[in-house]
């Protein structure tokens, strides 16, 4: 009986020791796996440290459509303004009644729409006095007053600008020769119109023209 008991006790001690060793190995393996999975690899660390070059190397570019649309709109507006402007073929030209007062001489320069559709005038006409042969007398008229607004002329309607000079003797500056004609470039036009000046003479070195306004003034 004594031999059997010793053998059984030794077997239990062997089995118990084996279980303890196996448990220790299992815990060690689990700890090693946990540590390995929780630490990033060197390749992952390198990838995380690199900037996102795919986004940085392709910055957004502004679209050119807005600039192109603006330029096209301006070009269309300019074309429409040019087509709406009164031309020399649309109008007749004459001088109105001379107004003399306080040493000043003012003469309306009258444009009348003789066309079949409405047109517009805006700004200062270019005006020169000429002799019968077309040679210029003195200098072209300077501008007097503000630029003013656009004048819409329906067929048969008129607009005017005012020529201004002074009487002889108001200034020591000598008068120009008497003129026979007045040559006029309507605002925005590259073609001139001519009408009789009625012998208008510039004195005192003063010769100006206002911007175009609605109406004929006689």
Q: What do you see in this structure?
A:
It is built from four helices and 13 strands. The protein is of the alpha+beta class. The protein has two domains: 45 residues; 124 residues, Immunoglobulin-like (Sandwich). Strands 1, 2, 3, 7, 9, 12 and 13 form a seven-stranded mixed beta sheet that branches. A four-stranded antiparallel beta sheet has the order 6-5-10-11, with no helix packed on it. The protein has a two-stranded antiparallel sheet with strand order 4-8. The longest helix has 37 residues. The chain is globular and about 45 Å long. The termini are far apart.
What keyword list fits this structure?
about 220 residues; alpha+beta; Immunoglobulin-like; 4-stranded antiparallel sheet; 4 helices; globular; disordered N terminus; signal; DUF4232; DUF4232 domain-containing protein
Q: Tell me how many strands there are.
A: 13
Q: What string, H for helix and E for strand, traces the elements in order? A: HHHHEEEEEEEEEEEEE
The portion of residues forming beta strands comes to 25-35%
CATH architecture label of the largest domain:
Sandwich
Biased composition (Low complexity): 33-51, 63-83
Protein name: DUF4232 domain-containing protein
Organism: Streptomyces inhibens
Keywords: Signal
Question: Topology, please?
Answer:
Layout: H1 2-38, H2 42-49, H3 53-56, H4 65-84, E1 91-95, E2 99-101, E3 104-113, E4 119-121, E5 126-130, E6 136-137, E7 142-143, E8 151-153, E9 158-166, E10 181-185, E11 193-196, E12 208-209, E13 213-214
Organism: Streptomyces inhibens
Keywords: Signal
Biased composition (Low complexity): 33-51, 63-83
